[in-house]
Amino acid sequence: MYILYNIILAILSVIFAPLACAALLSRKKYRAGFLEKCGMLRPRDGAGRPIWVHAVSVGEVMAAVPLIKRIKQRFPDVPLVVSTITETGNQTAHRNLKQADRIMYFPFDYPFIVRRVVRAVNPRVFIMLETEIWPNFLRELSRRSTPVLMISGRISERSFRNYKLFSFFFKQVLAQVSRLCMQTAEDAQRIIDIGAPQERVLVGGNIKFDLQVPPITLQEQERLRADFGFAAGQQVFIAGSTHKGEEEIVLSVFAALRRRFPQAALILAPRHPERFDETEALLRQSGLPYVRRTALQAAPCPQRASVVLLDTIGELFKTYSMGTVVFIGGSLVPVGGHNVLEPAVFGKPVIFGRHMHNFREIARMLRQKQAGIQVAGPEQFMVEALRLFEDPAACEEIGRNAFLVIQENIGAVQRSVAVLEDELGHNAR
Predict the structure, then answer these.
(1) Strand order in the sheet with 350-352
(2) According to the model, what pLDDT value does residue 300 have?
(3) Residue 372 is part of a domain; what is its CATH number?
(4) CATH number of the CATH domain containing 419
(5) Could you give the number of structural domains in the chain?
(6) Where residue 356 falls among pLDDT bands split at 50, 70, 90?
(7) 292 — phi, psi (to 5°)?
(8) Which alpha helices (DSSP H) does 77-134 contain, by range?
(9) 227 shares a domain with 201
(10) Do 169 and 258 reside in the same domain of the chain?
């Protein structure tokens, strides 16, 4: 089956080569780390076989922070390598994972590339967060008898359908994973149905609940408000990780809020940096006074504006501490949603749309505990945002409930490190 997989991979590579070349020439984000992805790694500093943790993008990197801190505390003398796929994920890792001895881009899944990279890194164990299944890479690790752990694994309904079609192949691939620590019992059953050995699957929880709250005092919050040009006590609506088609809805909701609360402000944070200019064009069309966050940072005295376009990387998490109400994007359009726990950890009421299949279990918990509000569309979004702005007591209650949901589900990191300890001990024996 691997021969067929690699033949298909080669054919697709030839077909899409012209598009890939055009993308490399025109888009900086595709050029980022390209040589590393092709297996051209600089020699690794230091001795010893490392623990290799793979986190795809920003969300997975931020979720990995407490896990990596705990691993480093438990194995202080073992080198730690972190890989990402996206440019923003790589930048976030450099900024937040100071414990890592090396941060790199994950290789393309071609046999000759993964062979070179695995030989160069020579990990003692490989940890993949959520569900990153790369057949040739896992096969190479298996050939070298390197243990593989899936931590905080999840299988969405859509992914399950796709994997199930090729379960005859993925049964072989998943047989090379030593332990599969899934987020929920449903995820565990799905990966077993795809072909994972049942005796290697366990429910370990979701490491996203083990969020490390950025240290921020009341004085720092006020300083952050001043940096954004907001007055003390000013109501702030935050729309985080928005996607194409959502900014127009957010601006419409904000316009309704402004009619009722003229002093309200908006922080608008598109998910992808390449959409900052596109979003700015929408703001110009709206007629709302706005300023880019980078312009505020450059100015000696921050100017006041109704809208701040958050065009920086890595600031959004702390920014949630200023919010009166927070909307999480990727949920009004069929993307699958983003991490609703980040504002919840600050006790903020969070609104999200109906497309939450990437966070289905977390969304269900928040709804069940009256700890978050799921809306069907723009009209309900507007109604709920207005209700929350008008009812500070409801905001406080929802935010408090959300924080309690986090407290009740902490522990996945500890369980994951226990599995790692057991696997390393077993491998040594």
Answers:
(1) 290-292, 307-309, 265-270, 236-242, 325-328, 350-352, 373-374
(2) 66
(3) 3.40.50.2000
(4) 3.40.50.11720
(5) 2
(6) very high
(7) -80, 145
(8) 87-96, 111-121
(9) no
(10) no
Tell me: do 310 and 378 sit in the same domain.
yes
Please give the Cα distance from 385 to 256 (Å, whole number): 9
- Gap between the Cα atoms of 23 and 31, Å rounded: 8
> How far is 209 from 100, CA to CA, in rounded Å?
22
Tell me: do 301 and 395 sit in the same domain: yes
Q: Which residue has the higher pLDDT, 20 or 12?
A: 12
Annotate 178-214 with DSSP letters as a single string.
Answer: SEEEESSHHHHHHHHHHT--GGGEEE---GGGG--PP
pLDDT tens by residue, 82-101: 999 999 899 999 999 999 99
Residues 304 and 395 reside in one and the same domain? yes
- Cα 350 from Cα 352, distance rounded (Å): 7
Q: Which of 60, 342, 384, 423 does the annotation list as catalytic?
A: 60
Residue 17 counted as domain residue: no
For residues 135 and 173, the answer to whether their CB atoms sit within 8 Å is: yes
Does the residue 4 lie in any domain?
no
Q: How far apart are CA 67 and CA 323, in angstroms?
A: 27
Task: Please tell me whether residues 185 and 236 are part of one structural domain.
Answer: no
Is residue 186 in some structural domain?
yes
45-49 long-range contacts, Cβ below 8 Å, gap at least 24?
Answer: 45/101, 45/102, 46/79, 46/101, 48/77, 48/78, 48/79, 49/78, 49/79, 49/122, 49/123, 49/124
- Crossing angle between the packed helical segments 247-260 and 276-286, to the nearest 10 degrees: 40
pLDDT at 44: 67
Same domain, 371 and 225: yes
Q: Are residues 163 and 309 in the same domain?
A: no
Tell whether 2 is covered by a domain.
no
pTM (2 d.p.): 0.84
Q: Which residues of 362-383 are buried (b: 16+ CB within 10 A; e: fewer)?
A: bbebbeeeebbbbbeebeebbe
36 catalytic per annotation:
no
- Summarize the confidence of residues 272-299 as an average pLDDT: 92
C-alpha distances out from residue 332 to 221, 307, 341, 389, Å: 29, 21, 17, 20
How many Å apart are CA 42 and CA 389, to the nearest integer? 53
Q: Which domain holds residue 421?
A: 29-205+411-428
- The Cα–Cα gap between 126 and 148 comes to 5
Tokens matching residue 363: 């969304």
